[in-house]
Specification:
By secondary structure, the chain is an alpha+beta fold. The chain is 49% helix and 14% strand. Mean pLDDT is 87; it is low at 110-119.
């Protein structure tokens, strides 16, 4: 890998880091993914706003997905982040919801349930 590629990858990683820290809940998804729908439905059911980043609408979806794999250990979508930390994918999110753990996670942090800052759209 040349340094130009590494620099570009680093820029995308920084942008992802900024993005996942702008909103309380960030879901990286794809429109046609049923697991993504499941994850979004969980947050809608508990009244928690979220920011959705549809990989298919990005200019560099493969690069973003590869970096998400490096960050989270999985390349599948959705990749769900709460307070900047990955809680897993769609099945993980549904399981956390079913056990009550998701609401505990959301209540345990400083940002009140249902509140979310809105940042700019990603540049990648």
């Amino acid at each position: 890998m040349n340094s130009h590629t590494g620099d570009h990858k680093g820029e995308i990683k920084l942008e992802i880091d900024e993005l996942i820290n702008q909103d309380r809940v960030v879901i990286f998804s794809k429109e046609s993914c049923p697991y993504c729908v499941d994850a979004k439905n969980v947050f809608e059911e508990i009244g928690q706003t979220y920011r959705e980043v549809d990989l298919n609408t990005l200019s560099q979806p493969k690069e973003v997905q590869a970096i998400l794999k490096e960050m989270t250990g999985a390349s599948t979508v959705p990749r769900v982040f709460v307070d900047g930390k990955c809680i897993g994918g769609g099945s993980d999110t549904v399981q956390l919801f079913k056990t009550g753990r998701l609401e505990e996670i959301l209540k345990s942090e400083s940002v009140p349930l249902g509140e979310s800052g809105r940042g700019e759209n990603p540049r990648f």
